[in-house]
Amino acid sequence: MDRVSGGATILLHINGNQIPGMPHVPEAVNAQVYITPYIKTSIPGADVTIARMVQMFIEDIGLPSIARWERAMAKNGVTLNYSAQATAPSYNYIFPPPLVPDPRPANSCLHIIPGRPYGALEQAITGGPPYQHRDVLASTTRDHVAVIEARYTSLQAAHSDLYSDFNSMSDVLNATLAEMEVKEKKLSEQKEELRRKRAELRKASEKIAELTAVINLNDLRLAERQPRLPPRPFVFGPTVTTKQTAAPLLLPTPAVTHAGDSSSNNKKSASLSRREDQAPIQALGKATVRAVKQLGLPAATHRCLYGLYRGQVNALWFEDLSAESGIEVEAAFALVKAMHEDLGLEFDEALCVGMAVQ
């Protein structure tokens, strides 16, 4: 007929008589379907449409027809063992069967298409969750909802636990980061302090080297200007007191000792001692003598200044004059400056005065 009219034909049929005790579910029903061959081979997507038509026919027409047939048989007294319990065929959701199986016999138009569980067809077509048919039983829906709610509750509890663990780990991490920042800040401050101290030490070393060079130069100049007295033997003798200070008199050892000679020797020694004592006074330069007179200092200051010339480095002159000799700071400063001028030494205020102030 299709060849004559150019039409398309699909025939659907199910048997009302099923295996005794088989539950009324779509996967327990097989539909016999006649399909014009060109529908499958020439129309794209025809398998999906045919599979949906067959599944709807089984759910909406096949299952009610089977139930009606069983009621009619029971009403007419047909004793079929409907009390037996049979198990519906299992359905493979992972590898579902083809939408339209191959014809039986081969090269024919007859196809045996089994029904699928509720919603399984759409899952097989789209690869998504099962499609809920409008006539799915209410009990099945409630079971699905209960399962979904249980899963949701379980996932919510797991999410809460994970979130709590994440917060705890985040707090620990933040505390560790804060501690590391504090330590890094302290380390940076310590490095900066060490760098500053190294710079100060380097400057101090340079200043010490500079001052040492000045001291060595002044000591060399001072040594060149020191008066050189001829060597003579010394013995301890009586003390001779001068106007400035009292000092032990060093006498030459006499070859012959008697009363007259001893007296004359003592007089000569005293006279020699006075001349030698006057030598330091005469050795002071003009600038130093002028400063002593201008400041009105006593004559004993000359001996003190000469003692500084001979026995102390110029860097300590100011300290000795101001601390030990009782001379005021301004006077000591003027004297030290005049002494450097007389000796031709370089007067470094930071060296000569700064050290005493420190």
Automatic annotation (TrEMBL):
Keywords: Coiled coil
Region (Disordered): 253-277
Coiled coil region boundaries: 173-214
Low complexity bias: start-end ranges: 262-272
Domain of life from the UniProt record: Eukaryota
Protein name: Uncharacterized protein
